[in-house]
Amino acid sequence: MIGERSIAFGLGVVVLLSALAVVDAQHRSRALFVELQALEAEAAELETEWGRLQLEQSTWATHGRIERIAREELDMRLPEFDSAEIVVLP
Fold first, then answer.
1. Which entry of 15, 20, 42, 70 is 20 to 30 Å from 82 by CA?
2. Contact 41/47 with Cβ under 8 angstroms?
């Protein structure tokens, strides 16, 4: 009788610990899922910003813009055709 009670008590403790472990695992799983969603949202925002920065870089580096800045701000001009020299390397 005492042996049966000890076994029943032991099994009850094991069941209780198992239930607590399941609750803890579910809590951790939900916390990790929330963190995953936040990281995926951040990744999407960073991807959008990366695309915007690439577009901005391509806009700043257009030939027309560079030529306009060279003419207006640096007062650069293309040389006359007659003053151009072709250098031939040996």
1. 70
2. no
pTM score, two decimals?
0.56
The single residue listed with the structure tokens 């929330």 is 34
- Cα 83 from Cα 37, distance rounded (Å): 64
Map tokens 């901005």 to a residue: 56
**Which structure tokens are listed for 38?**
């936040």
Express each pLDDT in 45-72 by its tens digit.
999 999 999 999 988 888 888 888 889 9
Q: Which H, E and C letters describe the chain, residue by residue?
A: CHHHHHHHHHHHHHHHHHHHHHHHHHHHHHHHHHHHHHHHHHHHHHHHHHHHHHHHHHHHCCHHHHHHHHHHCCCCCCCCCCCCCCCCCC
